[in-house]
Every structure is written in structure tokens, then in C-alpha cells.
Amino acid sequence: MLTCFQTSCISSAMFLTAMAANPLCATLTLNSINQTIGWLDWAKAAIVPGLVSLILVPLILYVIYPPTLKSSPDAPKLAREKLEKMGPMTSNEKIMTATLFLT
Predict the structure, then answer these.
(1) Ramachandran region, residue 87 (left: φ > 0; alpha: ψ -120 to 50; beta: rest)
(2) What's the pLDDT score for residue 3?
(3) Positions in the chain whose pLDDT score sits under 50
(4) Taking the model in full, what pTM does it have?
(5) Cβ pair 13, 6 in contact under 8 A
(6) What's the pLDDT score for residue 1?
(7) Neighbours of 72 (CB within 10 A)
(8) Which residues have CB under 8 Å from 89's CB, separation 6+?
(9) Backbone angles phi, psi at 67, to 5 degrees
């Protein structure tokens, strides 16, 4: 869960439109030093530190907070059993799946 939180912060910093504070920073830059920062400018500046962080943060967190369960060989079998118990998809579930694929 901690890795999800940390990588979400990183990806939010990588793109100008990823979070509300980023366009605010671009506007403040324009107002204070009269320098325009566009979407591509932001992406070019953030791509290297962002990708490095996306690679390193999960590895560092794995070392600092190692998982207590590192292997679960029975998981596929258990998942198959649970899916069989649930039965076939309902029409509402199929509609939702189609909607997700279309968007």
C-alpha cells in the first residue's frame, strides 16, 4: 500500500495535468518570471527523475519494509475455485466490462 501511495505521488508530479498544483506552478512561473511551461516542457523536464523514482521507490520500500508473505503457490487454484463459486458474469457485469473497455 505504501508503494502505491509513493508511486502515485511520483506520477502526479510527472505530468502537468496530473494534479491541481501543477498548473498552478506553471501559472506562478508565468506570472513571476514570464516563462511559459507547457505540457511537453513539463513532461520533458519530469520524465527522467520520474522514471528513476518509479524504479527506485518500490525497490527501496521492498528493502525497508519487506513483505511478510513472499510466495503464494496456491493463489491460482484458490482464485479458480472462487470464480467457479461466483458463477458466470451477470448481464450488468458484462455491460460494465464493455463500458470499461470502451473508455
Answers:
(1) left
(2) 67
(3) none
(4) 0.62
(5) no
(6) 64
(7) 8
(8) 97
(9) -70, 145
Identify the pLDDT of residue 17: 92
97: cell is 466490462
- 86-91-94 Cα angle (round to 5): 85
DSSP the chain: -HHHHHHHHHHHHHSTTSSTHHHHHHHHHHHHH-----HHHHHHHHHHHHHHHHHHHHHHHHHHS--S----TTHHHHHHHHHHHH-SPPHHHHHHHHHHHH-
By CB atoms closer than 10 A (0-12, 13-18, 19+), residue 42 is buried
Give tens-digit pLDDT for 25-46: 999 999 999 999 999 999 999 9
